């Protein structure tokens, strides 16, 4: 089954988002608190697609439940048959477990 090409509007949005990420990464390092960088209206206006992500992900979790859930998954990955797994492979498996749905994979 061939893959269909994304619609022009989706492709444009992805290109715009990629452009903002690239521009942000090439911005000179800000000396100070990151919150102060984003409170600056010029910076917030310069990266409008990144600002909602910042608000969602650049904060402390309200509870420890997410951390506890990840440790619970790690416990199942590190069962008696897989005690010799490297830390790198454990991190990769935890990443995949947490992010497969984002990439459109279905877990059954």
From TrEMBL:
What InterPro entries does the annotation carry? HATC_C_dom, RNaseH-like_sf
> HAT C-terminal dimerisation domain: from which residue to which, for each copy?
24-100
Recorded superkingdom: Eukaryota
Give the signal peptide, or none: none
Q: Which GO terms describe its molecular function?
A: protein dimerization activity
Under PANTHER family, the record lists:
HAT C-TERMINAL DIMERISATION DOMAIN-CONTAINING PROTEIN, HAT DIMERISATION DOMAIN, C-TERMINAL
The name on file for this protein is HAT C-terminal dimerisation domain-containing protein
Q: Which organism is it from?
A: Meloidogyne javanica
């Amino acid at each position: 089954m061939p893959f269909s090409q994304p619609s022009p509007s989706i492709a444009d949005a992805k290109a715009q988002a990629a452009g903002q990420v690239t521009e942000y990464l090439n911005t000179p390092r800000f000396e100070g608190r990151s919150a102060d960088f984003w409170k600056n209206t010029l910076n917030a206006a310069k990266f409008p697609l990144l600002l909602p992500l910042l608000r969602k992900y650049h904060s402390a979790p309200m509870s420890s439940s997410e951390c506890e859930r990840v440790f619970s998954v790690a416990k199942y990955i590190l069962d008696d048959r897989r005690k010799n797994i490297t830390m790198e492979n454990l991190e990769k498996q935890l990443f995949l477990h947490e992010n497969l749905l984002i990439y459109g994979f279905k877990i059954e």
